[in-house]
Write a structure and sequence with these properties.
Layout lengths: L2 E3 L1 E3 L2 E3 L6 E4 L6 E5 L4 H17 L6 H17 L1 H12 L3 H21 L6 E6 L2 E9 L2 E5 L7 H13 L2 E5 L5 H12 L9 E3 L6 H8 L5 E5 L2 H11 L5 E5 L4 E5 L5 H13 L9 E7 L3 H13 L19 H17 L1 E4 L13 E4 L6 H4 L6 E7 L2 H8 L7 E5 L3 H10 L4 E4 L18 E2 L12 E8 L6
Parallel strand pairs: 1-5, 8-9, 8-11, 9-10, 11-12, 13-14, 13-18, 14-17, 16-17, 18-19
Antiparallel strand pairs: 2-3, 4-5, 6-7, 7-21, 12-20, 15-16
Helix pairs in contact: 1-7, 2-4, 2-5, 3-4, 3-6, 4-5, 9-10
The structure holds nicotinamide-adenine-dinucleotide (NAD).
Nicotinamide-adenine-dinucleotide (NAD) binds next to helix 7 and helix 8.
Length: 478
């Protein structure tokens, strides 16, 4: 059955906007369904609906209602998990196990924040005799949530759940590549009977006008954005016109530092998964292998063998171990980068396309030039560099030599070194003897051009809360 993804505004499904557009399966080019692109007028309508729900409703003052609604949404997402995961595979191209993993992570995260919704509290301070100050934590207002295509379930829930828990109302803009996944999630939300009208609104699009209108809207107080650093800069610039608050979860170039005393078997297993999960299209993917020169050849030989053994194929095929890229345009872009890697470094394993579909087998290349764009920029695919270092100081310096600071990993048998290096690396997350472990409970976010603010964890609420000082002089007894 071909499905159509619509907008959801003020409690009603809407199919006005632009001409129907196709959503295609990157593994075989087939049409998965259609979606209705939005418009500036629809973005404004959604913002007005969210504003009205925030200003005139009791959502922000009803933590128990918020928890009830969020537990209900989580149950509905879980009940629809097979359908949602199948749509993620069809629209995004990732493996079925990856799709189910992200769907269930979204369910877990919605439940985590549903619990926290009932514990949003402020503090009180005695200012002097007979004078007191209350510091209330209040919902920031209307949150605009803009998400990318690479993990359309978890990245939506990662912003939506803390926004709802904090008491915000929301306008969501999904990515154009994954509209049907998003529409199925919105159905779970819309079916929740206790959800007040206008608390969650969603507008599709296939350009940038809806997102830009949200960023410019005087009715929206906070933008929670996940996407590339280039777009993040535009969002921050656009938000400056209304001095909106922005939470930015942006790009990364995660280094994995492998010391000579590391368990290389463990490192290779962790980093094969850590670099090729979602075909390398994940912000925290291991993108640079920094290896001590004494074990560099051994590590490289093992990584080549591990990469060669990875079965690349359709995400829907249980035998596949790495799915497709998001589209053939990215396949062509990455093949150009492989050629560049050959010119600037030395390719030790050359990847290439399969007979059809947006597939690309893994590439490993050596490089010794920190200034190269291949080292400095996010490649966002299964292409990883190998660089070497002579000592700990050089390892840290090289790990910190990009504008990004999202995630990193350290592989060593020396606990003190692991702690030292993890503190010296400027990144929002550092994994020790592992890579790619994300939890609803654990804050994520970036240093440098990887973003600002934190999502996940208790701190994730902060992007959606304001602190209000209420001063009172009740006087003293007597
Ligand atoms: P993108 O920046 O191109 O798009 C992200 C979203 O922003 C999409 O919904 C897009 O339609 C919208 N958008 C684009 N231009 C806009 C504008 N001018 N104003 C408002 N909205 C606009 O990113 P992408 O290619 O979809 O996703 C991949 C990127 O996302 C990578 O850089 C990746 O590292 C990053 N990412 C970061 C995290 C994180 O947690 N830090 C997680 C996942 C992905």
């Amino acid at each position: 059955m071909v499905q159509t993804a619509r907008h959801y505004i003020a409690g009603a499904w809407r199919d006005d906007g632009g001409a129907l557009a196709d959503s295609t399966n990157p593994a075989d080019g087939s049409v998965v369904g259609q979606y209705v692109p939005g418009s500036v007028a629809l973005a404004d309508e959604a913002a007005a609906a969210a504003r009205k729900a925030f200003d005139t409703g009791l959502w922000a003052a009803s933590p128990r209602l918020r928890a009830q609604v969020m537990f209900d949404i989580a149950d509905r997402l879980e009940a629809a998990k097979d359908e949602i995961a199948a749509l993620v595979v069809a629209e995004n191209g990732k493996l079925r196990a990856e799709a189910m993993g992200e769907t269930m992570a979204g369910v877990s995260e919605m439940r985590y924040y549903a619990g926290l919704a009932r514990s949003v509290r402020g503090t009180m301070q005695e200012i002097g005799p007979g004078a007191m100050s209350l510091f209330a934590r209040e919902a920031a207002g209307v949150a605009g949530i803009i998400v990318p295509w690479n993990a359309p379930v978890t990245l939506l829930v990662r912003s939506l759940a803390p926004a709802l828990a904090a008491g915000c109302t929301c306008v969501i803009k999904p990515a154009a590549q994954t509209p049907l996944v998003h529409a199925r999630i919105m159905r779970c939300i819309a079916e929740c009977e206790a959800l007040p009208e206008g608390v969650v609104n969603s507008v599709n699009e296939n350009g940038t006008e809806v997102g830009q209108a949200m960023v410019a809207s005087p009715l929206i107080d906070v933008i929670s954005f996940t996407g590339s650093s280039a777009t993040g800069k535009k969002i921050m610039e656009g938000a400056s016109k209304t001095l909106k608050r922005v939470g930015l979860e942006l790009g990364g170039k995660a280094p994995a530092v492998i010391f000579a005393d590391a368990d290389l078997d463990k490192a290779v297993t962790e980093l094969t998964h850590g670099s090729l999960n979602m075909a390398g299209q994940i912000c925290v993917a291991a993108a640079r292998f920094l290896v001590h020169e004494s074990v560099a050849q051994d590590f490289e030989d093992r990584m080549i063998a591990a990469y060669r053994a990875v079965r690349v194929g359709p995400g829907a095929d249980p035998a596949s171990q790495m799915g497709s890229l998001i589209d053939t345009a990215n396949q062509a872009r990455l093949m150009g980068l492989i050629e560049q890697a050959g010119d600037e470094g030395q390719i030790v394993l050359k990847g290439g396309p399969l007979e059809s579909g947006a597939f690309l087998t893994p590439t490993l290349f050596r490089i010794d030039n920190l200034q190269s764009r291949l080292v400095q920029e996010e490649l966002f695919g299964p292409i990883v560099s190998i660089e070497t270092f002579a000592d700990e100081a050089e390892a840290v310096a090289k790990a910190n030599a990009t504008v990004f600071g999202l995630a990193a990993s350290v592989f060593t048998g020396d606990v003190s070194r692991a702690m030292r290096v993890s503190r010296a690396i400027r990144a929002g997350t550092v994994w020790i003897n592992s890579h790619l472990r994300l939890f609803a409970e654990a804050e994520t976010g970036g240093f440098g051009q990887s973003g600002m603010g934190r999502l996940h964890g208790v701190e994730g609420l902060a992007d959606f809360l304001e602190t209000k000082h209420v001063y009172f002089e009740p006087g003293t007894v007597g």
